[in-house]
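In keeping with the milestone schedule agreed at the kick-off meeting, the structural modelling team has produced records for the first pair of proteins. Each record is given below as a sequence line and a structure-token line. The laboratory manager (R.T.) confirmed that both were archived under the project's standard naming scheme.
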Amino acid sequence: MTKHDSAWDGILDADETILWQGRPDPKFMFKPTMIFTTLFGMAFAGFALFWMVMAGSAGGYFWMFGLIHFAVGVGIIAGSILYPSYKRRRTWYTLTNRRAFIATVLPLLGKRLKSYPITEDTQIEFQDNAIPSVMFATETKRGKNSTYTVPIGFEHIPDARQVMTLLRSVQKDQK
């Protein structure tokens, strides 16, 4: 693609052209981090359920205070399992001759478009998974007691090898 449609007017520079556009595979994919989050959610919901049963055996409606905790536990379980594929369904990727764009449209967060410049110094990493990914940036996030780095890129794309080649050619053109 050498031309872009009017949706990109005001976003792309005058001499910037779109080289590739794609979307991540939205299928469910298991990641090891899901184990801890799911187990935590199960423990949270399980304890709330136990508390509600015990409070209910005393009579009255006091057991209903446990419903919010039970719902939070179920939400943690569902979120860790379902949210990643939901987010991929609402994500779009674009690569130009200068930048990589990641667009998302999520409830409560709204529309977001992030751009990442591709320079000769950009570290590009090819992740050869069942559905490969190409990473080209990092983001530092703050945890409760420390900071951690998250890789950013075009995740779970079937044509990752082609995109990797395009990214390298963009890097060469920047020299």
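The second protein of the pair:
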Amino acid sequence: MNGPFLLRKGARCLMTLLLAVTFVFVVLRLSGDPVQRMLADDVPAKVIESYRVMWGLDRPLPEQYLRYIANVVRGDFGLSFRDDRAVATILAERIPATLKLGLLALGITLLIGIPGGIVAALNRGKLVDRVVMGITILGHSLPNFFLGILLILYFSMTLRLLPSSGIGTWQHMVMPAITLGTSFAGTVARFTRSAMLEVLNQPYMRTARAKGVQRPARIWHHALPNAAIPVVTVVGLRLGGLVGGATVVETVFGYPGIGSLLVNSVAQRDLAVVQGVVLLIAFTMVVTNLLIDLAYGWLDPRIAATQSGAGA
């Protein structure tokens, strides 16, 4: 792991962010004039034009794009079209809520997915394997909105144990975290099982067994480290997608995070906020992918040597 490798990865990260911002910038503006969508039909044309001038939408599209990129580089994401507040401020208000929900959901994912996949692999073909994988597939197959509604109907409407929407206490996070984490747990469990089965069939595992290494030691010291790379990949991708993936869950539960902000901003044609949220999601994915590459080198020194050799 050396300087040239990190520089290459950093350049790719910047290019990815630039492409994401460019795509959203162009698509949002090709979908129609946001001013006309935000104002009533009977608003005079002069008023509409004044708003377009105020928000810089009267300028040519290339000029709007260059000005926006220049402002983003300086940390200025613009002002919300709705309440004239800085987009960075709006995002800063919503990020903690989504971060708490995402980390709690990730914890549920890891606690269910990784042990479930390991247990299923170690009992391949047995009843335990079929039960565990059946549960994980069911959790993965249920749409987030459907599972969320079921939880609301049972725990909020029937038992009246948990609040159905809002934020403020730990009870507000229970159902959204379970809904988000359950779906991810199914994917992680399936990848963990596949990775473990592949490792358990390797010659070095049979050699360790022939040398008399006890099963717990074989699993802990030989199987798990070698099966970790594909698991780290899928967990990392899920972690990076938690911000965007929480959109449906936050909408169902009325949870005031980044996901619900994105939905509301799209509906209101608040371009500045939409662009800021998309840039945040892209940044999260890019940073997560970079961390995954770094984790590869830590888990497998051979990969680190290859990366260093490629950067030499």
